[in-house]
Amino acid sequence: MLSERLKAVSGFAGVGTCAADIGCDHGYVAIDLVESGRFEKCIAMDLRKGPLKAAEENVRAKGLDERIELRLSDGVDKLQIGEADTVITAGMGGRLIINILKAHPDIFLSLDHFVLQPQSELGEVRHFLHDAGFSLKDEMMVIEDDKFYFLMKFVPGGNDEAYEGMGEEAYEFGPLLLNNKNSLLKEYLIRRKSIISDAVSDIEKALSKNSDNERLKARLIELENLDSLIDKGVRVYET
Predict the structure, then answer these.
(1) pLDDT tens digits for 94-129?
(2) What is the domain extent for residue 198?
């Protein structure tokens, strides 16, 4: 059974002929995409032999051996241009996702669209894709076990107007989520502000005892800048 996060990832992939799930873990998303009829086939890929073996067992148990192919692969290294029209990369750190995109930009440029669900560095991911000429098509959020997850759908090329008239807060929190005044994003911002407030207070107390700690000073500036971006995001909901 899919978790709320994986349900959202699978649903966000849309429909197509063949999807490639990068970092497929136990193969649950690939199985759901094929069983639901939204994709004719899937290529489930993972860098680790253990999860790929578990995925193989799950695929076999469902009788989907002919529709889901499993490959041991670092990112999309073992995916050829034209094999898939959709790629899913979920549950990885943002910088790892950027490295996967950098390694094979030709593959991502050949897709109808691709879905990302970074666990961190969301702003860096959005900046990279915007600068690389990909357009943000859609965004959504889901909450599972009291943790927030961001999903993004990109298409190659196009005229990306998502960030038009917006500042750095759009890259950090998502321009479409902000423009649509997404209710989960508002809850996320409020919670994040509370966490940052506590962290700033702790650092200020530590600096009062050791004012020469450069690491703490740098971290304080980083948190204050993020707090400022959160304030800008929250103001969107007040208009």
Answers:
(1) 999 999 999 999 999 999 999 999 999 999 999 999
(2) 185-236
Please write down the long-range contacts of 154-163, taking CB distance under 8 Å and 24 or more positions apart: 154/113, 154/114, 154/116, 154/129, 155/111, 155/112, 155/113, 156/108, 156/109, 156/110, 156/111, 157/109, 157/133, 159/135, 160/130, 160/134, 160/135, 160/136, 162/135, 162/136, 163/130, 163/136
Domain assignment present for 77: yes
Q: pLDDT digit string (tens) for 162-181?
A: 898 899 999 999 999 999 99
Q: Are residues 71 and 124 in the same domain?
A: yes
Q: Is there a single domain that holds both residue 22 and residue 136? A: yes
Domain count, the chain: 2
pTM for this predicted structure? 0.93
